[in-house]
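User: Can you model how pyridoxal-5'-phosphate sits in this protein?
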Amino acid sequence: MHDFLPSDQALHEALQQLIDAKNAPGTPHGDPVAPLDLPEALPAHGIGGRAALAALAGPALTRPTRVDHPGFFAHMDPPTPWVTWAATQWAAAMNQNLLHTDSAPAARLLERRAIEWLAPVFGMDGGHLVPGSSLANLTALWAARDAAGVRRVIASEVAHVSVAKAARILGLPLTTVPVDAAQRMRADLLPDDLSDAAVVLTAGTTATGAVDPLDAASTARWRHVDAAWAGPLRLSSHTAVLDGIERADSVAVSAHKLLYQPKESALVLFADAAAAHDALSFGGGYLAVPNIGLQGSHGAAALPLLATLLAWGRDGLGARIDADLALAERLAARIAAEPELELFAPSVTGVVAWRPRHADPTAVRERMTDVWVSTTVIGAQTWFRSVAANPFADPDLVVDAVLAALG
Ligand SMILES: *Cc1c(COP(=O)(O)O)cnc(C)c1O
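Assistant: Here's the modeled complex, given as structure tokens:
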């Protein structure tokens, strides 16, 4: 009746299914067409845990897009290291709620330790975990409004859509600033008076990985750096790409991108976390400690993050990021050497925009089976986009498949 504890072997079997699926090849773009083989309405009677997992193994384990496939050179979604699989399972089983000190004393310490390790990397003095940088951007701009009195938001025209969402939610007008040919904010076109503005600088734009001049807008009331993608480069040999980030008032970093974490894991960090958190705090009632930020109940996302940082260390993480960026550089070099292909720009943060010179990228992509790239629109034109988040990606396999699909 209870079914809260596994029968002998059931959990081991589930784990073995996962390992078997990971060892099977899979496809780089999943299987979007096969219908789900599940009841269409809520089942009246249960079939038990083992049968439930058997029913879900197809969609969960064999059909997914394989972000670790050698032909997957597409999105900002990395494969996750095995320690995060185990740590995530531990967190699910213990189900701590970080909202309460009394029910999650150790889990709260773990999150604090993760912040203590990572905030100084960006010159920040604290912050907290959120489920993604969309929410990190919203949280940071909320602090900018309520802790610093910001009355408007300014970002480049290619800033992430979450900046526009945040401005809308917060009731702050958003002004966009044009970008240069390399997709960086034209800092010379910023308004002269920034005394009431939060300026969002992007470190690693979603489309091309460009980094805005991070020393711009020094007179802004608040400077937020959206480093969702490129933030972790601060731990790699590419650290100089982010010089200036340490002078921000707040920073967003998605751990589920280049820190190789399972979703949903990100950090919002502040130069003065006490003041920012004070503006984001709600207390009273049954809460023993103030509730800080957007989330109420939240779980121990810090556990897989700490497991990864402990397992790899700063040097190991940096080496893995370097290796990923080297794949982007190899891809870009190969594209530049192929007369049929056009490279948008050299890779700055591991995002490569490219396209066939004489064929429609969308049509070419549809003809490919063993490789996968994403697409992006730059100006009004569609380009392929390949993101260096997959350590197993094979740049030559990807380029050869595109050349073959040109016909
Ligand atoms: C991915 C990304 C975001 C949004 O982060 P999520 O973690 O997906 O919510 C914001 N800004 C930039 C530049 C990004 O690349």
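A couple of observations from the model: The chain has a mean pLDDT of 95. The longest strand covers residues 381-387.
User: Helpful, thanks.
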